[in-house]
Write a structure and sequence with these properties.
The complex is a heterotrimer of chains A (381), B (226) and C (340). Chain B contains seven helices and ten strands. Chain B is an alpha/beta fold and 226 residues long. Chain B has a single domain, classed as Rossmann fold. In chain B, a hairpin with a 2-residue loop joins strand 9 (212-217) and strand 10 (220-225). Chain C has 340 residues and is mainly alpha-helical. Chain C has helices at 5-34, 42-79, 89-94, 99-123, 132-159, 169-172, 180-186, 189-211, 217-251, 270-293, 303-332. The chains are: A alpha+beta (381), B alpha/beta (226), C mainly alpha (340).
Chain lengths: 381, 226, 340
């Protein structure tokens, strides 16, 4: 055991010195390795963060939403529609929702105006009061207790006292949110009483969501029923597709990288080749050289992996992934301002390892062996 | 101690450019003696040296070390025998540039995994015996030719081999250094080591320390002088 | 197919692993036809050289398989969120008919590859590579398994769809249903714990006997074989104990019998602390026993018994770790199942 461990120590020692001496030659490959890890890690971290945020949005979403449709387009629902759904067994917290978008010219941004659910006592609002998201507060430079002024497309004016700014933790969900009371909302958008953007309900037993949606559709044939599971699946489909396209593109890059690594490992310099020959002549066997070379690969991999992952972490969570965001633009229209909550878990790290380190090591195995099985008598010829 | 029986070595076996570098050589190397293989270049003496030193396996024939047959051993075990039995000094020294003299001397012991402190002490001792310990931390490419050879010999001795093998040891040395080298050989012999060299340098084969000169020609032993 | 990075990583690993093993088994054919260690011919030397590559490749594949097995289960647990009705890995695995077969194939691959590595290690200690033929025949036997494993994994991942209705662990590991899972769950806690304790004692006793250097060769050999059998017994008993008792202690819930939920973050990933030593102990025990089923080659007279003994001791150590974790679970749990 002792001799085995010291032998490994010597091999690592030699591998590190060898990298030091010949490192400049493989620095280019190493930088590409870091870049590969960086790109793959960025996609994985960004994708996972977006999924998590989407799930956070959906966790708060109602189980079933009924939307009135007319000529295939979204229409307002009425109080009568709500009444038709009342009395559905298993449905709960049935209410009409009021929400809409407002392009705010002074901030040059879209705000979501919404009336909070009547079932949520945390967000009870008096007339002239508002609860706003962190992004709205930042853009309009207001804080709790200050006044917020909004102008509707019809030049209607709304003066609101900010009761609370929603905390940053839920930024993705609420950043662009302006919660106002129902009376203010209707007055501001000129919306008659008894009209609602859509209808939301909870279902007590999760296993009955499908059944309730079916029954709701029978009661309201002109509506479309969107269940939370539908939305989750739709998001999932969008993410999967985009991530799949990215990964498919990346797999080409990975293959190219593996070929490059293979080529680099196979094309040793004359100096290195001679060194291996010397080592074999003075008593190292093929296994020793393979061990040393694998340690070399491990050092290179660990270095590239750490550097690439740390860079990707900074890229995604500190700078909001400016380099890959354009590629994933579709996601950013779903989520207006994305400041992602930084989390990395073992699953992502393991996945990243499988995508980068495994192909690299697989690519260099054969060249390493070829190098290591040099004839020991070659240096004497 | 080391016997070769009817040993043949073919290169590029079965191909049109097949070469028989050594053909049917039978040779005994005696323990504690200094033997020199002489012969023109291309005569096969270096190949013979690689077969004796277990750097290569003979195509046919047997190599025995202290009665144990080595010729059928897989590379892994042959390498193990080699590093415990033989020390090698090469014509071009074959030191690894960029490493210090001390690191170079320690290299052959790495696969055996001795404790680091003991190995360092041993390597320093080898360098001191050859009078180059003051250069231990110097990168080998900054050493003079004579120092390089001493470091190379120190490296050959670090695993305390019974047999020291040197291939054309004086090819890259000038007159004064040849004398110094022969002094080292005499010291090794006095300490009971078996020394085996190839050389076509008359100053080596004619030196008084040499016990036996074997002439090699065309892959065979041409004559054996006592 | 769900294009999810861990899935793509697992597919990649399966394809690389399967490809490498396929290549290695082609080499195995050639080797079995031509291997002659006594020969100094270049073709024999080339074969010997290539065995270094095969050994390195197989060690790489093995390391990858272990990683893939852990990732597979870990990912299955995480993906449960995507399936209607899934709460943990069971739901994800149940979302396709290929799920559980793929898991079993991966487990089988783990054990097969570890046996191969044991054979490879021991073979390299004998001066005439005495186990080479056995080792490469074993490789040829493993190759179809690798193929099946890759095929099942691929089929499973291709078959997965996000909207699948699946059943959760609660409906699978329920005592009053049919099937192996239900039967495992219906074991009462006290007898399941008794069974695993007996199995561990048996494995410990045989393992210590097989690992002690002082017994006569014949006894050592019998002890090794017994330890191998006991290791398999521990493996089975441990799975029963986990389903019928240990998981209950982890969840502190008298009716939640799931062997996968214990892998979750909520329970401190305690499942990994149970399964890793269990798998390691079983593989080591089986490896030691496998060595003892072979006729002892002269060149391994010293090395083989010493390695087999070492494997038995390591196996006992791994089982001891398993036992310690299991005992800690029962000790620290707020649930009282027996004699309460």
């Amino acid at each position: 055991m002792g001799a085995w461990a010291t032998r490994q120590r010597y091999l690592i020692d030699f591998a590190a010195l060898s990298l030091w001496r010949h490192g400049a030659r493989s620095l280019g490959l190493w930088l590409i390795y870091v870049l590969v890890v960086f790109v793959v890690a960025s996609v994985i971290l960004y994708g996972a963060a977006i999924r998590r945020e989407a799930n956070a949005v959906l966790d708060a979403a109602p189980d079933v939403v009924a939307q009135a449709m007319r000529m295939g387009r979204h229409e307002m629902s009425t109080g009568a529609d709500i009444e038709k759904l009342r009395g559905l067994r298993g449905a709960d917290r049935l209410e009409g929702r009021l929400w809409g978008y407002l392009y705010d010219t002074s901030a040059a941004a879209n705000f979501t105006l919404q009336v909070p659910s009547g079932f949520d006592p945390r967000f009870r609002l008096e007339r002239g009061e508002a609860i706003i998201g962190e992004g709205v507060a930042r853009l309009r430079k207001v804080e709790a207790g200050k006044m917020l002024f909004l102008i509707s497309p019809a030049r209607r004016f709304l003066k609101l006292k900010v009761k609370q700014v929603l905390p940053l933790g839920s930024a993705l969900v609420s950043s662009d949110l302006v919660l106002v009371g129902e009376a203010d909302f209707r007055a501001f958008f000129d919306l008659p009483a008894g009209q609602y953007t859509d209808i939301a309900m909870r279902v007590r037993n999760p296993a009955e969501v499908g059944k309730i949606a079916e029954k709701s559709l029978l009661a309201l044939p002109g509506h479309r029923m969107v269940t939370r599971a539908d939305m989750r699946r739709t998001y999932e489909a969008i993410f999967s597709w985009r991530e799949g396209v990215l990964v498919a593109l990346l797999s080409g890059a990975l293959l190219a990288f593996a070929i490059l690594a293979f080529d680099k490992a196979a094309g040793l310099s004359a100096g290195e080749r001679r060194e291996i020959g010397i080592l074999k002549a003075i008593g190292w066997d093929t296994g020793d050289v393979i061990g040393m070379k694998l340690w070399e690969g491990a050092v290179v991999s660990v270095g590239a992996f750490l550097a690439g992952t740390v860079a990707a972490y900074a890229h995604v969570f500190l700078f909001s992934a400016p380099l890959i965001e354009p590629v994933i633009k579709g996601w950013s229209t779903l989520f207006p301002r994305v400041t992602l909550t930084p989390t990395v878990d073992a699953l992502q790290v393991a996945t990243l390892g499988f995508f980068t380190v495994v192909p690299y090591l697989a690519a260099i195995l054969v060249p390493i062996w070829r190098t290591a099985s040099a004839d020991p008598d070659r240096v004497m010829r | 101690m080391l016997e070769l029986a009817d040993v043949t070595k073919l290169y590029n076996q079965g191909r049109p450019n097949e070469v028989a570098a050594v053909r049917g050589v039978t040779l005994d190397i005696e323990a504690g003696k200094v033997t020199v293989l002489t012969g023109p270049s291309g005569s096969g003496k270096t190949t013979l040296l690689t077969l004796i030193g277990c750097l290569a396996r003979p195509t046919t024939g047997r190599v025995r070390l202290n009665g144990e047959i080595l010729s059928g051993l897989p590379e892994k075990f042959l390498a193990d025998v080699r590093r415990r039995t033989f020390g090698f000094a090469f014509q071009r020294f074959n030191l690894i540039a960029g490493l210090s003299a001390l690191d170079n001397v320690m290299l052959p012991a790495y696969p055996l995994g001795p404790p680091h402190r003991r190995l360092t002490a041993r390597a320093m001792e080898m360098l001191a015996n050859l009078g180059v310990d003051h250069r231990a931390a110097t990168a080998v490419e900054n050493l003079s030719g004579g120092e390089m050879q001493r470091v190379a010999i120190a490296r050959a001795l670090v695993n305390d081999p019974a047999i020291v093998i040197a291939d054309e040891p004086t090819a890259n040395l000038d007159g004064a250094l040849v004398g110094q080298f022969l002094d080292i050989v005499a010291t090794l012999k006095a300490r009971g080591k078996t020394v085996l060299m190839t050389s076509h340098d008359g100053r080596i084969s004619g030196a008084p320390v040499v016990d036996r000169v074997v002439a090699v020609a065309d892959g065979r032993i041409a004559e054996a002088a006592a | 197919m769900i294009l999810h990075p861990p899935i793509l990583a697992l597919v990649l690993a399966s394809l690389i692993g399967c490809g490498l093993i396929a290549w290695a088994s082609l080499f195995a054919w050639r080797l079995l036809a031509r291997w002659d260690l006594a020969s100094g011919a270049e073709s024999q030397i080339a074969l010997e050289r290539r065995t270094y590559l095969v050994s390195t490749v197989m060690a790489f594949v093995m390391a990858m398989q272990i990683g893939a097995l852990v990732l597979f289960v870990f990912n299955a647990d995480r993906m449960a969120a995507m399936f209607v009705g899934a709460m943990c890995a069971v739901g994800t695995l149940n979302a396709s008919v290929y799920g559980f077969p793929a898991l079993y194939a991966k487990m089988a691959m783990f054990f097969a590859a570890s046996l191969w590595l044991v054979a490879d290690h021991v073979d390299g200690r004998g001066r005439d590579y005495p186990l080479t033929r056995f080792k490469y025949r074993l490789l040829l036997a493993i190759a179809p398994l690798a193929l099946v494993e890759a095929g099942l994994s691929l089929a499973y991942f291709l078959d997965l769809k996000a909207d699948t209705l699946t059943s959760c662990c609660g409906s699978l590991f329920t005592p009053n249903k049919d099937g192996i899972a239900a039967e495992m769950a219906s074991f009462d806690a006290a007898s399941a714990l008794g069974l695993i304790a007996a199995a561990l004692l048996l494995a410990g006793g045989t393992g210590l006997a097989a690992g002690s250097g002082r017994l006569p060769t014949g006894v050592l050999r019998v002890a090794s074989l017994a330890h191998g059998a006991a290791s398999l017994f521990v493996f089975g008993a441990a799975l029963i104990a986990i389903v019928s008792a240990l998981s209950l202690y982890v969840y502190e819930h008298p009716h939640h019998h799931c062997p996968f939920c214990i892998l979750k973050r909520e329970y401190g990933y305690v499942g990994f602390a149970l399964y890793l030593p269990l798998f390691a102990g079983t593989a080591l025990g089986a490896g030691g026993a496998m060595l003892r089923t072979l006729p002892l080659p002269a060149s391994l007279n010293v090395a083989l018994p010493s390695i087999a003994g070492g494997l038995a001791r390591a196996s006992v150590a791994a089982f001891a770790l398993f036992a310690a974790v299991a005992a800690a679970i029962v000790w620290r749990s707020g649930l009282i199942l027996i004699g309460g």
